[in-house]
Specification:
Length: 127
């Protein structure tokens, strides 16, 4: 089983350590409430304040969005599509929810492994 890193694992570290965790951590951006059976947008961004490298030997390869243990969607990344400079990579997903959601994003850096976001609860009205 691979390790699954999270920003909170590094929260007590130095500025350098926290920046390392920041630039690797996926963040879920969405509303906290959704309407049942209505398309609901979810954005996942890698990093909050620090951009991750986008070099041939060091880049993100995919971003996944999970609802508990169910894989909702996955975006495969082609490094060359984002140039060579550090970047906040984003992926957009659309869910049509039937019940409330507990969303987590997982993303893979080819040099530093798997990173997960914090869980985000989305209340679905009308369930
Ligand atoms: Fe990395």
């Amino acid at each position: 089983m691979p390790r699954l890193f999270s920003y909170v694992d590094f929260a007590g570290g130095s500025d350098k350590v926290r920046n390392y965790a920041d630039k690797h951590s996926p963040v879920i951006i969405c509303n906290s409430e959704a309407e049942r059976n209505t398309p609901f947008k979810v954005k996942v961004r890698i990093g909050t304040n620090v951009k991750h490298p986008n070099a041939p030997d060091h880049h993100y390869e995919y971003i996944q969005l999970w609802n508990l243990e169910t894989l909702v969607g996955e975006v495969k990344l082609q490094r060359s599509s984002y140039g060579d400079n550090p970047v906040h990579i984003e992926a957009d997903f659309t869910i049509i929810p039937k019940v409330s959601l507990r969303l987590t994003a997982v993303a893979y850096c080819n040099k530093h492994g798997l990173w997960r976001s914090e869980e985000v609860f989305v209340k679905v009205e009308g369930e």
